Amino acid sequence: xxxxxxxxxxxxxxVFLTMGIVGKVRKSSxxxxxLIFAASGFIVFFISTxxxxxxxxxxxxxxxxxxxxxxxxxxxxxxxxTPKETTSPIPEKTEAKPASTPxxxxxxxxxxxxxxxxxxxxxxxxxxxxxEALARTYKPSQDELLEFSGFILQAYxxxxxxxxxxxxxxxxSNIFRAVVLERFMDDAEKLPLDSFAFDFYQNTKYVYRGVxxxxxxxxxxxxxxxxxxMIKIEASLSSTN
Length: 241
Prior knowledge:
The chain folds into two domains: 2-51; 104-240, no CATH class. Helix content is 63%, strand content 0%. The chain has helices at residues 2-26, 31-51, 62-65, 104-119, 124-137, 142-157, 168-184, 193-208, 217-240. The longest helix is centred in the N-terminal third of the chain and has 25 residues, at 2-26.
C-alpha cells in the first residue's frame, strides 16, 4: 500500500510540476493550482518513502544451522568395490613369563642396581621401596627363579636372613629375590613358594626398616606360616623324587 502511494505521489508531483511550468510560461491562471497539486504529490511521495520499513537482514533459521543428515545411497547395479573398514585385533592379555634361558648380563645389572640403591643417602624405607620397585619390573630367567628359591629357603632354614639387618645390600637383595618369586610363582602345583616368599619379604622389609623387631609377634606369626609352607614344599619335592 505504501509503495502504491509513493508511486502515485511521485507521478502526481511530476505531472503537476510540469503543468505548472507550462502554465507559468503561458501565463495561465491555473499555475498556482498546479504548483499546489505538485507539492501535495511530493509530500505524499516523501511520507511514503519514510514509512516504508527497511529490509531486515535474513537470519538463518536454527534448522538450517544443523547439518543435513546424509541418506545412505541406494545400491547401484554397477559392480564397484567399496573399501571395507578393518579393525586391528585386540591382543590377548598374557601373564608375564620368565625367560627360558639365563641372562648373565641381566643378573649383573640387578646386582649393580641394588648396590647403587644401597649406597644412596636416603632412608632405609626409601632404599627398600627402590629395591621393591626394581623387582616389580624385573623379568627373571628360569635359572634365576631356581636360584632365588634355593637362596631364600636356605637363608630361612639357617635362621640367618634377619641377622644382618644393618647390611643394606644383603637385606635389599633378599627383598628383591622375595618380590620376584612372589610375582612369578604360584601355588597351583601345591608348591607354596609364592606364599613363603611373601612372608619372607614382609619380615625382611619391616625388620630392615626398623618397624618390627626380630622377635616381634608379627615376625613370629609370619615365620609360623613359613614353617607350614616349608613342610608342604618338602613333601612336594619328596613326592617328585
